[in-house]
Amino acid sequence: MAAGKMDTEVRREQIAQAALGIIATQGMKGFGIAAIADRVGIVPSAIYRHFKSKDEIIDSVLDLIRDSMIGNVTAICEETADPLERLEKLVSRQIGMLHAIPAIPQIIFSGGSFEGMSDRKDKLHESIRRYLVKIREIILQGQKAGVIRADMDSEVLSLMLMGTVQQAMIMWFVSGGNFDVNKYAKKAWAFYKNAIAN
Amino acid sequence: MAAGKMDTEVRREQIAQAALGIIATQGMKGFGIAAIADRVGIVPSAIYRHFKSKDEIIDSVLDLIRDSMIGNVTAICEETADPLERLEKLVSRQIGMLHAIPAIPQIIFSGGSFEGMSDRKDKLHESIRRYLVKIREIILQGQKAGVIRADMDSEVLSLMLMGTVQQAMIMWFVSGGNFDVNKYAKKAWAFYKNAIAN
DNA sequence: TTATAATGTGAATGTATATTCACATCGGAG
DNA sequence: CTCCGATGTGAATATACATTCACATTATAA
After folding, report:
1. A34 touches strand D (CB under 7 A)
2. Contact state of B170 with A171 under an 8 Å Cβ cutoff
3. Residue B135, CA distances (Å) to B15, B56, B63, B73, B188 in order
4. Residue pair B91/B169 in contact by the 8 Å Cβ criterion
5. Nearest residue by alpha-carbon distance to C1' of C20
6. In the predicted model, what is the mean pLDDT of residues A130-140?
7. Which residues in chain A touch residue B94, judged by CB atoms under 8 angstroms apart?
């Protein structure tokens, strides 16, 4: 593919992207050094010029997704200030990520491949926690502003919203892409909004 | 552990249970023939007297979980006829399964290990679909009876309920068991019930 | 241009693990 | 009791990978 030698920073990016592509198309089963190297256009052993180990690649991919998720939140916060609008945009943005990074469900839902290092799960946990806190902040803001019912636990509301989105991912994943995520997300959001709105 | 020779049916059960135990405690990473054999108290090669391959064991475990899930639905349907009560009991029962079979999240969320055969995912999909249909039937029944708002798509409602429960599983899993699932389930159900009730 | 550090290559190594096989042993049907 | 099929065992085999290594090649700075 990419002939010639390249700077290690570029290669690291290419490798992480290749990893995502493989996971998306072949699942975790196909996620191997050889496959990655193939996709990047170099030989397996060359991978080790840029990553110390396969684990490091996984970490890199996780970081990539985490940043993408957090990025979504900050992005929608800049688009609008209205809490309900923020949540709505966040939902559709999160769903949209499925198409941009189809590997997400497989990664999120495969604790299996991530139990290598003991702190891998901690890291994942921390990422999710941070993400949830941000959602919760939006909800709290909405409750303070009076547009979201205040008689409900903001943490529960944030978890349910996340659960709803992840359910879409699960359905999309197990159905092999046949599940209409957008339609579901739209209806689910309507229900959720109606339930939390004052 | 279990000395002496045993009937293959008993062994198959023991092996499936051992597999669940291992997955729960050590994750998919520890899920190997040797570990299973150890737990059952026989030698690795003896496993093959009862299962043709590791894949067949995975299938067996999946069946076990599927039956357990479906069993939950039929069980609560016998306990009560009221749709809302049925759903409530189903939620708490599903949450309760986390303690009975702690391996569930790891299995549900690790498509990664299950992509061996191409029809593995189809099977999983079919199980989830069947389960969802049953939830949906309860909701439809409630809508017909007038206790659940009829202006909402029953499929979306069933998916959201499932998503809510699965979010509890995810949090429980990534937090290493520190997340208080019961408290969350209680509040989430209250919210959901309030939103769907007429 | 040339020296050197970074990157790429092909072969070799090591390891983990599923699976097979020849043989041993048990348990129940006759 | 005594066979015989089913179950269990230990060693051997196969394979799939990650990782290492010695060497080749390229880019770049001087």
Report:
1. yes
2. no
3. 31, 29, 19, 8, 17
4. no
5. B45
6. 97
7. none
Q: Which nucleotide is nearest to B55 (CA to C1')?
A: C18
**Closest nucleotide to B4 by C1' from CA:** C26
What is the Cα–Cα distance from B44 to B77, expressed in whole angstroms?
Answer: 42
What pLDDT, on a 0 to 100 scale, did the predictor assign at position A168? 93
Angle (CA) A157 B183 B100, round 5°: 120
The answer to whether the beta carbon of residue A27 comes closer than 7 angstroms to any atom of strand D is: no
Residue carrying the six token digits 């599903």: B94
Rounded to the nearest 5°, which phi and psi values hold at A197? -70, 145
Q: What is the DSSP letter of A81?
A: -
The pLDDT of residue B110: 63
Q: If DSSP states are collapsed to H, E and C, what string results for B82-148? A: CHHHHHHHHHHHHHHHHHHCCCHHHHHCCHHHHCCCHHHHHHHHHHHHHHHHHHHHHHHHHHHHCCE
Q: Which of A45, A57, A179, A59 is nearest to A121 (CA)?
A: A59
A18 at interface of B, judged by CB pairs closer than 8 A: no
> Would you say residue B186 has pLDDT above 60?
yes
The structure's pTM equals 0.91
Residue A110: pLDDT band by 50, 70, 90 thresholds?
low
Q: What is the pLDDT of residue A112?
A: 45
Each residue's pLDDT tens digit, B23-71: 888 888 889 999 999 999 999 999 999 999 999 999 999 999 999 999 9
pLDDT at A114: 60
Å between A26 CA and C8 C1'?
26
CB atoms within 10 A of CB B11: 19
